[in-house]
Design a protein that fits this description.
The chain is of the alpha/beta class. The chain has 4 domains: about 35 residues; about 120 residues, Glutaredoxin, CATH 3.40.30.10; about 240 residues, Rossmann fold, CATH 3.40.50.880; about 35 residues. A 9-stranded mixed beta sheet has the order 8-7-9-10-18-17-15-12-13, with helices on both faces. It is elongated and about 110 Å long. The two termini are about 20 Å apart.
């Protein structure tokens, strides 16, 4: 037996010599070869993954808690519906732009997400404005900075400044970024440069003391051009389909009201709209009152209040920030999802009354537990004595006939149309845009643009579930797999 084993060993040694390589050397070569193959496979897999994620947006993963490096569904819809070539051009190279602030990387990611979802229609470019000063010649009338972004389509363009992309706060002489609103800014810019429709709306500024800056920005964001007019001094341009009378603090003259009346009549052709937004405090205005009466509506003598606490954002204040409901006729809410869409937010609203139900209907109203507080009420007034229920805070009246109809929309709250447009939880933007699109015959605005504000916490935070899954995979699953593979290899080699 010993002789047989010796013979076998001798034969193996001779075979090894004849092959020029020992068994140990072969095993070492196989081990190194296996390692090289695994490393090569990892590199190839990484390259393939990089190519695929660049080409197919859905293969990317954003593990921040709010998915802030990806765009939401409304932005995806905008990107997918782009039919012409759109360029998003940064005025710095990518690394330089991202070095300006923590939030800037989120901006470049958002821009590139638009490109990924657009089937090649949206392109992202980085132009170093300092190294390419001639680029400024394309925009001679503009003052460009290295932190600017240009969204362009053909000859139309929109320049986004840092103030359009970020919210700032001052700390002494130092200004710092507190949050990003880049996604909504890029949303808006793409819609503006690609839209084929631009509608002018007139706004009457006579005797108006409240600011309409927010409303103006909202109109501009949705391709409505605001034209300032004085009904006291000028004729109303005949090409305007809609005008807004913005919170006059005193009565219009009889001549001015006649201009409005004739504008709505439109030479018996009608087809015009007037949105009258009331001033929140008591104003004696017999001429305006007569015009409202012609359309079946009138002022109530006081402010609308709410006692239903489920409608109140503050149980101590029944006048401010009330979640108002829509009237039974449900005008202008055809595209509302009753389960997902919140009501509109109304604040400090004059109560509106329907005086002629044949030609006027309520649009927005408070609950069954609402009422009207007279301007003359003192501190001892009892709300229960003034509850009437379902107080309208916005209504609509009609005039015309077979030739067409004109509309007068009477809104009791200026804040509903201005400061409350910035509230993301409620549907003021969507509802008001529905009204404007309907009365102006607009069909192109199907996406409702809201600011998506991202804070520094959102940029770095990862939700608990993602953290747990990632931790389990990295610290448990992968090590176990590697140890198991090593142990199996050990057993196989030992048997040999």
């Amino acid at each position: 037996m010993a002789e047989k084993n010796n013979k076998t060993n001798t034969e193996e040694k001779e075979a090894s010599k004849s092959s020029g390589m020992s068994r140990k050397a072969k095993r070492r070569l196989i081990s190194w070869g296996t390692i090289c193959l695994v490393l090569a496979a990892a590199v190839i897999a990484n390259v393939i993954a990089s190519v695929l994620t660049d080409k197919y947006a859905l293969l990317t993963a954003d593990i921040t808690s709010g998915g802030v490096y990806n765009i939401d569904d409304s932005s995806v819809k905008i990107a997918e519906n782009v039919k012409e070539d759109v360029n998003i051009t940064f005025m710095s190279d990518k690394s330089t732009y991202e070095s300006y602030d923590t939030y800037c990387k989120q901006v470049t990611n958002i821009a590139e997400q638009f490109a990924k979802y657009s089937s090649g229609k949206v392109k992202v470019d980085y132009i170093d404005l300092i190294q390419n000063p001639n680029f400024q010649n394309k925009y001679k009338e503009e003052s460009l900075g290295v932190s600017d972004i240009i969204i362009s389509c053909g000859d139309k363009y929109n320049i986004l400044k840092a103030s359009d992309l970020f919210n700032f706060e001052n700390y002494g002489d130092y200004q710092y970024v507190t949050s990003s609103k880049a996604e909504s800014a890029i949303d808006t810019a793409i819609v503006k440069v690609t839209s084929k429709e631009e509608t002018s709306i007139g706004i009457i500024t006579d005797y108006s003391e409240d600011s309409y800056t927010v409303l103006e920005k909202f109109l501009d964001s949705n391709n409505y051009k605001l034209r300032l007019i004085s009904v006291e001094k000028d004729d109303i341009p005949s090409d305007l389909k809609t005008i807004i009378a913005f919170a006059p603090t005193q009565d219009y003259s009889e001549a001015a009201v006649n201009k409005l009346r004739n504008y709505l009549k439109n030479g018996e052709k009608y087809g015009k709209s007037l949105i009258f937004i009331a001033y929140r405090f008591e104003v004696k205005c017999p001429n305006i009152t007569k015009l409202l009466s012609d359309y079946g509506m009138k002022y109530e003598d006081g402010l609308a209040f709410e006692t239903n606490t489920s409608r109140m954002t503050s149980t101590s204040d029944g006048y401010r920030n009330i979640a108002a409901g829509f009237a039974e006729n449900k005008l202008y809410i055809d595209n509302f999802d009753q389960e997902k869409d919140y009501p509109v937010l109304v604040s400090m609203s004059r109560a509106v009354s329907i005086s002629n139900e044949k030609i006027a209907v309520p649009l927005v109203e408070y609950s069954a537990a609402s009422g009207v507080c007279p301007y003359s009420a003192d501190n001892s007034w009892n709300p229960d004595d003034y509850i009437t229920g379902y107080v309208p805070v916005m209504a609509q009246g009609y005039s015309g006939g077979d030739n067409g109809l004109s509309r007068l929309i009477f809104a009791g709250s200026t804040e509903m149309w201005t400061t409350l447009l910035s509230n993301q939880q409620f549907s003021n933007k969507k509802y008001i845009l529905n009204i404007l699109n309907d009365i102006n015959g607009r069909q192109d605005t199907g996406v409702y643009l809201d600011d998506k504000v991202i804070t520094k916490y959102d940029l770095s935070s990862v939700n608990a579930q993602t953290k747990n899954i990632t931790g389990i995979v990295l610290y448990a699953v992968l090590p176990v797999l590697i140890l198991s593979a090593g142990f199996c290899l050990f057993l196989v080699r030992r048997k040999r």
